[in-house]
Write a structure and sequence with these properties.
Chain A: It is a multi-pass membrane protein. The complex is a heterodimer. By secondary structure, chain A is mainly alpha-helical. Chain A has helices spanning about 1-5, 15-30, 30-35, 35-65, 70-90, 90-115, 120-140, 145, 180-200, 205-220, 225-255, 260, 265-275, 285-310, 315-320, 325-340, 345-350; strands at about 155, 255. In chain B, helix 3 crosses helix 4, helix 3 (about 95-110) runs parallel beside helix 5 (about 150-165) and helix 4 (about 125-135) packs across helix 5.
Chain lengths: ~350, ~260
């Protein structure tokens, strides 16, 4: 049963299974285990980034295509929901219409870019995606009449998904059962569904062809696979996944702007999460995103503690200055790539190299 | 009128000023095993590349059962029945032996765009792949990652993938190169079996004369990109042009 849900792709390592179960339970019961607005926000971000990173892994890890346009698709989904909510008014219909429209636009964009540029060398595709993504980011920040420009768009989501809506008079286990909680579970189950779909896709006959193309495109073609269609297909699925994750993110934030979805920084973050977790595994996305988002949100706190604890010593407090958290994140990244070149998942599965 | 299974007409490719394949016209009927010989640099592999589509010709045509295919991409030619095993081992290195063969059979079964079933649930494809592995004596290595396989076994897998593709036109490029003396017969026997099928033809680039003598129905000789001899093995091997172009040179260089 479980095997079927996971599409036969078991973690294949006891420690990995344990880590995944811990992450799953931690996120499933996050509102009860880690009460507070900030921790709930972190948990929601983890859910969304797991889905986003997994969709990127389909492209980078499974098909061997480097794309820099993943945030563009993320943004298309997010702006879809925002624009629909602004123009159609607050409501579930706006959220659904926005998500579907975002996914459709993402699919069309991915198909066009893919068919034009995936025929030739992969490096050309990387350059094209970089150019298109940059152009779209500039476009979105300039067309302020439609997109709100640099300020972005604030919008309202249905009352049923906000803390104003109370479902039970009394808190359960100290947690208020309100619309905000419901909204969190929309993020959780939305991301879970995306992950299960990706697991199925990578273990389908189609997914195996993607791996074959990554391994040896020359041979994949010689045995009869038209690789440009497979690459474009992978690119479309990945783009739609990113767009849906973007829609979820916009619903969670009730805001969309260039910095939250389209920025190149997020693109780099996605790359780091895939590499840290382990490319070509999907589970790597789960682990990479969890580690990274937690580090992003709590490394500074940890450093405050470390700086205080070492305040009487020379130099150390300076090194642990919370403003230097990015430096530490960088060091963590370098170390993880050095010691786990196949990512955390590759390491736990005990793969060679 | 019936067309030969495979034919090339004035097939030519130039790289800059160099004519690598020079107007080769040749017909390969079904049921025949043709050995293609010639010294290194004669254009044998380039001729293969033109037929299977890795290179587009400068002029001339390639026809499968009378249909022009010389402008089609590689994958479309594979669909038309052209199957190729490569001289330099050309596999999916980080996948298992089984998965390499399974991918070929899946391609043949046109299941590549099946997105939402599990690959492992396709029982027929799985069984067919296992059958091919059994035929080439690789079933014991089924779950080994290809890059960890000894060179001889990789060569065997290369042949297995071509057999799994079940093409109309089999193209082998030095199939036994780098194999040990006790491994080569397994592969040669498989190639010999293909000769029994009167609907297919086999093209074999080979240096080893004993292999050619036992297998080939016919020999064509390439030299400097041109076809210089074509006929049954005993006639071709004794002709003076071959002695001069091929044997003379082969004696001159050390393998």
């Amino acid at each position: 049963m479980l095997k079927h849900i996971l599409s036969g792709d078991m973690p294949r390592s006891k420690i990995l299974s344990l880590v995944l179960v811990v992450i799953f339970l931690g996120l499933a019961f996050a509102p009860f285990l880690f009460p507070g607005t900030r921790s709930l926000d972190t948990a929601a971000r983890i859910c969304i980034f797991i889905a986003l990173v997994a969709s990127y892994d389909l492209l980078l890890g499974y098909t061997g295509i480097v794309s820099f346009a993943h945030t563009m698709f993320f943004g298309v989904g997010a702006y879809g929901v925002a624009l629909a909510s602004v123009h159609m008014g607050r409501g579930f219909d706006a959220l659904i219409a926005g998500t579907l429209a975002g996914a459709l636009v993402a699919a069309i964009l991915a198909a066009i870019i893919g068919l034009f540029s995936l025929r030739v060398r992969a490096i050309f595709f990387a350059m094209i995606t970089l150019a298109v993504a940059t152009a779209v980011a500039v476009l979105f920040s300039q067309m302020s009449g439609i997109t709100g420009g640099e300020d972005g768009l604030n919008f309202k989501i249905p009352r049923a998904q906000t803390s104003a809506q109370k479902y039970l008079a009394d808190p359960v286990l100290g947690v208020k059962i309100n619309g905000k909680l419901l909204n969190y579970y929309l993020m959780f189950f939305g991301s879970l569904a995306l992950i299960l779909v990706f697991l199925r896709v990578v273990n389908s006959p189609f997914g195996r062809v993607l791996q074959a193309i990554r391994e040896n495109e020359f041979r994949a073609e010689a045995v009869g696979y038209k690789i440009v269609f497979f690459r474009t297909g992978a690119s479309i699925i990945s783009a739609v996944g990113a767009a849906v994750a973007g829609s979820l993110y916009a619903i969670w934030l009730r805001y969309v702007g260039p910095d939250t979805t389209l920025s190149f920084e997020i693109m780099i973050d996605i790359l780091l999460m895939v590499v840290i977790g382990g490319m070509g595994t999907i589970y790597g996305a789960v682990i990479g995103a969890t580690i990274f988002v937690i580090a992003q949100n709590y490394l500074q706190n940890l450093m405050v503690v470390a700086a205080d604890a070492t305040s009487s010593l020379p130099l150390l407090p300076l090194i642990f200055n919370p403003d230097r958290w990015l430096l530490w994140l960088g060091i963590l990244f370098v170390l993880s790539v050095y010691f786990f070149p196949k990512g955390v998942v590759g390491r736990l599965r005990g793969e060679r190299k | 009128m019936s067309h030969p299974l495979l034919a090339t007409k004035d097939l030519t490719v130039r790289f800059g000023g160099h004519v690598a394949v020079d107007a080769i016209s040749c017909v390969f009927p079904a049921g025949e095993l043709t050995a293609i010989v010639g010294p290194n640099g004669a254009g044998k592999t380039t001729y293969f590349n033109l037929i299977s589509g890795q290179i587009t010709p400068t002029a001339g045509s390639v026809q499968v059962a009378g249909e022009e295919i010389s402008r089609l991409p590689v994958a479309r030619r594979a669909e038309r029945g052209i199957g190729r095993a490569f001289q330099l081992t050309n596999l999916f290195p980080n996948l298992t032996v089984f998965e390499n063969v399974r991918l070929v059979i899946q391609s043949k079964a046109k299941k590549g765009f099946d997105l939402f079933s599990m690959a492992d649930d396709h029982v027929q494809i799985r069984e067919d792949a296992d059958q091919v592995l059994q035929n080439v004596n690789l079933l014991a290595q089924r779950d080994t990652i290809v890059s960890a396989l000894p060179h001889g076994d990789q060569r065997k897998l290369e042949v297995a993938m071509l057999i799994a593709l079940d093409p109309l036109i089999y193209m082998f490029d030095e199939p036994t190169a780098g194999m040990s003396a006790d491994e080569a017969p397994v592969v040669l026997e498989l190639i010999e079996q293909l000769k029994n099928d009167q609907t297919k033809c086999v093209l074999l680039v080979e240096h080893k004369m004993d292999v050619i003598r036992t297998l080939a129905d016919r020999i064509i000789v390439l030299h400097n990109g041109a076809l210089v001899a074509d006929g049954d093995p005993s006639t071709v091997m004794s002709s003076s042009i071959v002695q001069e172009a091929y044997m003379g040179k082969a004696l001159g260089h050390v393998e």
